[in-house]
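Quick one - first record:
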Amino acid sequence: MAPPPTALLGISPNHLSRYTTSWLLPPLPLGCLRFLLSLYAFVTTFTILGTDTPLSARQSFSYFTVLTYWGLAFYFLFSGLHTLSYARSGTSWLQRWPRPLQAFHAIFYSTVVTFPFLVTIVFWAVLYRGPWFPKAVDAWSNISQHALNSLFALVEIVLPATLPPAPFHLLFLALLLALYLALAYITYATQGFYVYSFLNPAHGGGRLAGYIIGILVAECIIFGLVWGVIWVRVWLTERILGLEAKTTCRAAKKSATTGVEDITGRAPARESEDVEMGKLQQ
């Protein structure tokens, strides 16, 4: 029997509550940490915009690095709100959102835990040629956008109780990369510059195709590695160490009085989660 669409998109009840819980931190500190990371990303972004020329500030929205950093800032903002709403009531806003928005959040999570690594690899392996940035603000902004971005992604891989992202998400990630490629060439057509020099076909069509295919393959490899690391984290923390997701008193009371949810705000059937984890281990 084909799996339901909610399972394909990673928005089944066993998935949703895990976005707002952690095996290590209670919901309130987790939400505060996410807000702190969001604040840092927004401060960095607006500082860069404020120190750039008006032209450079406008052109920055054509760069994949900048777009993914905006994505980090907004993801941590909304995930912080979801987490604090769960800490307050035992049920997050995410769990009450319409299915399409829940699916968007799940895919958003997949971009946050994969795209930053792609940005870091491409920048330091392909684009950066040195010397080191003479101005402190330039060094700080580049470290923030091309190094700390991957650290932020690692936080979302390690700390939450999330399950591995749905493999179906890889199609959406590839689509987003294709849409960005279109944006890069629209930028050249309308503003007359290539956001990344390797996108210039004057350097050779074969070389251009190699870069495009290479980036797509790199994203697939990153997705697979992230999937594996999250699987190991779930297996280690829940199966080996027996660490349940930290919950709230309200969620625990709901579980005790109604039987509708377990202590993590999830569906009560522990068997269903055992079956799901069994499938992951196969």
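second record:
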Amino acid sequence: MVELRKRREAPSAGHEPPLKKSSSATKVKANPDPDPDPTKAASTVIGDVQAGKELSVGSTVELDGFGGEVETQDGETTNLKMLVNDSKNGVVLFTYPKASTPGCTTQACLFRDEYFSLTTTGYSIFGLSTDSPRSNTTFRTKQGLPFSLLCDPKATLIAAIGMKKAPKGTTRGVFVVSKTGRIEAVEPGGPAATVEVVRKLVSDAERANSQAASDTVGAQAVQKIPEPDDVKAQDGALASDHASQADVAAEVADTAKKLDGGGDA
């Protein structure tokens, strides 16, 4: 005998069966910054540089208040304007991440070894980092560095010259500024590259000074060459002098002739 099964009734219109809960629901983490700005970190550094303006070679910065105050390894407070004023021809700041580490030691020692040649045109050289005066004193003493090391724990000057990493840290590089606040160099680079930047600036300055001295000597030599009128005047004076000498000689000869004639009488 065949058993008949009762067919299920179709669900009424407008009524949907409840959805089954997934045993592994996907969890979405909240984004703390729903609209991140990819330039935010970079703009922070650039904003600290000079009222939102990126530094470039040839531009001029206002030295008064630029970069705030820093300390030397001896604990003396100073700032970029004071350093520039005390220099003969401008200031070189080479930045390094951390004192007494291998790369920073190499960089500082390269500047040490070429210190004399790099300062012939009047640059004053300083190292710059976020290290404490104690750390930089140890670093300077151990390596026999002839220049001062500047301590910038808040990285205000480091940020001002564009060498601050975001969110923290220091980019190795070099910054050179003239007595008038003109930027001669602002460039990140390795230990040898930072020295090469300054070496080239010094070489170019020496070449320019040599050319200027040569031009001055040439101008002075041109001034000493007599003009045509002066030559004529000199020739006239010389001819007049020769004529006077001839007249004197004639008078002497005439007098001698008269004396000789008197003796014969």
